[in-house]
Amino acid sequence: MSSPTNAQSLTFRQRVTESAGAFSELKYLRYWLGSLASVGAIQVAQLGMGWLIATDLGGSAKTLGYLGGAIAVPTIFVNLFGGVLADRIDRRVIMMVISGATAALMTLLAVLVVTEKVQIWHIVAIAAAQGFFQGFDGPVRSSFFPLLISRKHMMSAVALNSVMWQFSRIVTPTVGGFAIKYLGTESVFFAGAIGWMTMFVVILSLAVEHTKPTTRRKVIHELNEGIGFITSNKLFAVIIPLTFANMFFGMQYLQLMPLFALRHGVDSDGLGYLFMMLGIGAVSGTVLIGRRQRSRHIGKVMIAGTFLFSLFVAGFAFAPSYAAALVMMYFVGIANSVFLISSMTALQLRVPAQLRGRVMGIYTITFSLIPLGGMLGGGVAEVLDERWAVLISAAVLSLIAIFVFITQREVRNLSGVELEAAEEEAATGRTS
Predict the structure, then answer these.
(1) Residue 295: what pLDDT?
(2) I want to staple 375 with a disulfide (CB 3.0 to 4.6 A). Which of 65, 300, 370, 432 is the partner?
(3) Does the pLDDT value for residue 193 go beyond 70?
């Protein structure tokens, strides 16, 4: 019989493990740190490309839109098949190829800037190539990290993944803005290459068992199977299109952010502060929704997050001063984080393991719609200006959120208690 001291020690260890969540699993912790480096590379590349086009190369709103389209089109196309690939091929190998190739692209762009040979078409072409590899990255990441954790830590891992992106949005743009100002634009692209090589080394060090599919059918058949699951499941059939709308209409301001910085009379460091406030708000939203995950009204909270997000984006578009724009960015980050974390957690807990790559591959198209929406926003901004482009799209998103709230009862009444029960049931089944 164990002594009271040993029992107390065990209880203490259990409490520490529970408080650490997914970080208590060392493979996930290493993956998270490596992903932080690569996500920072994505953020800094976006900052550098946009600033380079808008200032050094004299580009316009339409040109920034083309940059968004160059990233989005190949990413969306590959996303559809990237999920099938993630269910058929060793995800670890795919992620190493993605990391190495993207590091090479960042290095090439940095060299072009250093040698003063860079042109707008170079940036667009490299962005398109990066978009191709990112098309595989999204679905593979979404189906890879669950292999590193036990089912009971799924909510924690989803939240930590969000924190990773938001923390990067706080630190990377601020540091990147100062780096561009004092070290030159090429410095952020070299930093991006280092970030992706860090991810390569981390993935190389992770030993994860690859489960081969029991049957191998045609790619189109497997893709249709994933689409069929989404269309036949009410929760997925509503949340995924709502997320598409959230990214396409709501996030156009990201692609046009350099123009807002110029409108408010700030330099690259001022642009970095705007992104920083967005990240701080997103972390705040992550903490907020973490405390509400078990709410019986999580569906209402999720839809409300989208609606409030659209209002704050509109407020940012017509902010009367730079200080007001910073405040609006903070609330934009909170509202969008509330929606994204609650919605993705619900999907990850409900998707069957054998379909995870395909379904989450389709889901990750959402992030490709950000630059595609920016392409539309750039076209509208060319005719009107960037403020009206963002306002119009935010208004469309708010109407979609209202429509979903009124008509989609199952999503509106989604309960965090039920999600938690499903998580515990799955965890019990896995360990029994």
Answers:
(1) 59
(2) 65
(3) yes
In the chain, the amino acid numbered 236 is F
| Contact assessment for residue 394 and residue 310, using Cβ atoms and an 8 Å cutoff | yes
**Both ends of the chain: CA-CA distance in Å?**
24
Structural contact between residues 179 and 191, judged by C-beta atoms closer than 8 angstroms: yes
Residue 13 pLDDT exceeds 60: no
Domain residue spans in the chain?
A: 24-208+216-431
The CATH superfamily assigned to 24-208+216-431 is MFS general substrate transporter like domains (1.20.1250.20)
How many residues does this entry show for the chain? Answer: 432
| Token pair recorded at residue 34 | 């490596």
What is the helix (H) or strand (E) element at residue 237, kind and residue range? helix 234-250
With a cut of 90, say whether residue 292 has pLDDT above it. Answer: no
Range from 165-169, 184-188, 240-244 carrying the lowest mean pLDDT: 165-169
CB 190 within 8 A of CB 118: no
Q: Which residue has the tokens 């979609």?
A: 400
